[in-house]
Amino acid sequence: MSETDFEALVADALDTLPDELLAVANNVVVVVEDEHPTEDLFGLYEGVPLTERGMYGVFDLPDRVTIYRLPLLDHCRSHEEIVHEVRVTVVHELAHHFGIDDDRLHELGWD
Q: What is the pTM of this model?
């Protein structure tokens, strides 16, 4: 799958999220990279969750959600599986932006 097609899947996954949720996302960017330099990850959230922000200033860099293309493509065996795993990964990493940890995501079935 090309980089452009994969990026479109990530955009489609974001489009499936409720508008109310996206409206409260604050200072976060979603990017696609081929792979993490040292770990075998599908995605990574880097930032300060909304639930932990105190005096968050105008000049603070945005939080970052990175979706890693190659590990996802290597893991999946069909186009449908790729679509599903990309959506799960996008939801999982954005959930961290909202202060939802891995244990709670597991309870909710997003693992």
A: 0.89
Token look-up 């990017």 returns 31
Mean pLDDT of the region 27-47: 95
Estimate to the nearest angstrom the gap between the alpha carbon of 98 and the chain centroid.
12
- Please count the structural domains in the chain: 1
Please state, in angstroms and rounded to a whole number, the distance separating the CA atoms of residues 72 and 62.
24
Query: Structure tokens of 9?
Result: 């899947």
Query: What domain range is 52 assigned to?
Result: 3-107
CA angle 24, 43, 10 (to 5 degrees): 65
C-alpha 110/C-alpha 8 separation (Å) is: 21
